[in-house]
Amino acid sequence: MRLRWMFSCLAWLALSAYAAEPVSRLANHPAIKLVLDGKPADLLDQAALASMPRASVKAAAPGEQPSTWQGVALEDIVGRTCVASGDALVGRALSRFVRVTAADGQQVVFSAAELHPDFGHAQVILADSRDGKPLAQDAPFRLIVPGDKRADRWLSFVTTVEVVDASTP
């Protein structure tokens, strides 16, 4: 019994250390992993995001005062993966979706068409500042979806943006 308890404690400590490693590493060097099926991941750090076109929205999550959020439109980030756009966003390309993951494992999904200006044109930004001030170092990137009636897709500490092909052969 005592041996089983010791083994459980050691396993818990090892798993805790392993699980905490990516978050602490990302907190020291904030970056977003950009993934497209079948291609190597691209890392977008704060400098790379700062070089992209900037977007700004005024929005408030329920229970918060409205703030001005600044960052990069999710559509522009996804565009770096060579996802079809314009007239090419037809057929199979319409079956793609964008999955955004936070450090705590929470995920939200947007269809490629939902983000595209010729279809839904949802305004979604990956914010890195609020009211002109950088977001906290422990959560440097936040997903803001001002058009949603609920703030359930507003993720804190975004770590990954993936473009996934959901079409069937």
From TrEMBL:
Q: Where is the signal peptide?
A: 1-19
State one Pfam family annotation: Oxidored_molyb
Q: Which residues form a coiled coil?
A: none
Domain Oxidoreductase molybdopterin-binding: from-to ranges? 67-166
Which InterPro entries is this protein grouped with?
A: OxRdtase_Mopterin-bd_dom, OxRdtase_Mopterin-bd_sf
Alphabetically ordered keywords of this record: Signal
Domain of life where this protein originates? Bacteria
Name this polypeptide is given: Molybdopterin-dependent oxidoreductase
The organism encoding this protein is Dyella halodurans
What's the source species' lineage? Bacteria, Pseudomonadati, Pseudomonadota, Gammaproteobacteria, Lysobacterales
